[in-house]
Amino acid sequence: MSFTAPRTASLTSLALAVAAACATLTAPAYAQTTAIDAVIVTATRAPQLQRDVLSDVTVITAEDIARSGAGSIIDVLQRQRGIEISRNGGPGTNSAVFIRGANSNQNVVLVDGVRIGSSTSGAANWSALPLQAIDHIEIVYGPMSTLYGADAIGGVVQIFTKKGAGAPAVTASAGIGSLKTREYDASVYGATGGEHSFSYAISAGKEESDGFSATMPGNFSFNGDKDGYVRENATGQFGFQLAKGHDVGLVFLNSRTNGQIDSGTPVVIYDARSIQKQKNVGVFTKNQFLPLWHSTLQYTQSEDNSVSDPGTVSGYSSIVSKQHDWTWQNDIRVGDDMLQLLYSHRKEEVVSGSTPALGKERSTNSLAAAYNMKLGAHLASVSVRNDDSSQYGSKSTGAIGYGYRFSNALRASATFGTSFRAPSFNELYYPSYGHPDNKPEKGRNFEAGVQYHEGALELSATVYRNKLTDMLVSTSPCPKDVTKYPFGCAYNVNKVTLEGITLAASHRVGAFNVSASADFQDPKDETTGKSLARRAKEHGTATVDYTAGPLVAGVEWQVSGKRFDDAGNRNRLGGYGLVNLFATYQLTRDWSLVGRVNNATDKSYQVARYYGVAGTTYFAGIRYGLK
Question: What pLDDT, on a 0 to 100 scale, did the predictor assign at position 311?
């Protein structure tokens, strides 16, 4: 491997923090590594103990989220190993999530098994996802196309909302903070017992803020006013047991974010509105037909609705992207092993009043098979899949993995897998830019890792190399037709290598929880020799929290090296280090106070050139219950 870990003062310090956690120092304030006995669903599409999962996985629990004091799902993800973010302003604006250096449209995002994302941009709309409704998050790193099809090149993020169980209960919270931020949410959940049990969970919330200027001086549309947002959401899950081993259920999410953005030109500057709506619904039936055969039939629909409203200025745009998925999954036990057979049908459609050329649809039929084996100290997996699309044709992917337990505490593993990303509708049909002959991007990934878990100590190290070909980029002049595409076009021209090393550690020393992670990576465009835009070669976090009776208080350090804002590496974004403080005080069994201070040193930095970020911000709230 040609990758060489970059050396900077900040990341060298962070690496030493990881080493210190390894040497001297069960769970950190929010999970950087996964508890070995946690049950993981996303890695194999079926419940499995983390100790048996060959993929690199992180789990973030509801308690982790509450203790961290994060204000949005983007804040939560930014603090995880292997992940970087870019945001064009505050929480109500567009965000991009990079997993192991992969583009934001090279990751699959699920909410309770419902795939979300825009078919025009190819990326998920993170600003429409409510943090308060989340029960836990699973992040699987590396290619997962054999299980999830197109776009799972960098990884898969699955968000699980609150689920009903036990006696009826209520949770609620309210808080206020800097920039006139206000948050309110409430949930009710529970389940009935007996042969025909019924479970339910319903959550609703609202958050709003006056915000800060989304743009900075130098931005083409700079306006120094405040750009606030309002987000309203409702989520729910219902389940009913028809008979033992036979269940039906429904999940839904409805979220709307109305955010201010700066728009216009240096001559005419005006406020505009970006309205993002996310609507999900899924119904399923789970059946244990035979002792060794479990079947799941599921239909899901997601709608991503993006509206740009410039008020009195012309240029109103509206794009509605819908996905319909039918999935039939069969899990067959073979001793301690699992055979999985899957069929899915996915239909994507776009309706755009402002850009009629994007009003297209495509369908994909998929067949997949996977086998997961356990034999003594040996773990192995193999999977294959074929996706046959009405637009891009047939694509086959495969993956194989092997792991060996040297002891109950120490395991090593290695995996190889192929993946692909389907062209977005923008890259296919957008006027004077997209071309219908564009092909899918392809990936080939190899990674190896070591995990150690002994009592309160968790250590992990993973090295990976993901080679991507036929990358779709904007090229000018356009090789297709210079006359038809005078300003360039989307074209399969580049090759990219994503390679790096991730280190993580967590441990407990008395009343202290300590965790740290460091990523050394080199996401490079091999065609140009340039680094990929907005991705640093080093980044990481370190956290220490202290428990004293009802009080839990902690400090977090986030660091990132320099990045470039553009593909040509002409515009440099400096590295930065952020200090965040958080605390929780348990008043009674059910009532608690929470507080946080983000960017406590008021660090000035940018994750996107000429787009604003918050300075020091404060938040305080009260919570009833925790679910």
Answer: 55
